[in-house]
Amino acid sequence: MGWRFWAVLISISGIVVLNGCSMNLKSGRVTYEQNCAQCHGVTGLGDGTFADKLITPPSDLTALARNNAGAFPALYVTDVIDGYARSDHFSGAMPEFGPALGGEELRLGPLVDYIESLQR
């Protein structure tokens, strides 16, 4: 097969991957708006409409990578949302979302990807 075939195949593959990422972020954003924005705010700064009613302020989700030497801690974020990595400093106000979100493949993965997109 010629180089043109491979060039077209690579181009199409790139478009499919980018489209999948875009759909993943859209799905994650919807999940975020439905489950997280009330406390963490629309932009993730911890300034949601319900934030001032909590004893422990919600985290600023835009600073997760910055507070982790520039690397987004995706596994930690996944575990916190799911409920696996909860320490004593977590407020009981944040539910364990694992069962409600249907696991990594369905809504949890896209949500973590969306939170990663909020990093500043």
Radius of gyration: 17 Å
> How many β strands by DSSP?
0
Reading the helices and strands in chain order gives HHHHH
Q: Stretches where pLDDT falls below 50 for ≥5 residues?
A: 5-20
Give the N-to-C terminal Cα separation. Answer: 45 Å
Number of helices: 5
The percent range for strand residues is under 5%
How would you classify the quaternary structure?
single chain
Structural class: mainly alpha
Helix content: 40-55%
Shape: globular
Overall mean pLDDT stands at 81
Largest sheet, strands/sense/barrel: none
Provide structural commentary.
53% of the residues lie in helices and 0% in strands. α1 crosses α5 and α3 crosses α5. It is globular.
Index terms:
120 residues; 0% strand; 5 helices; mainly alpha
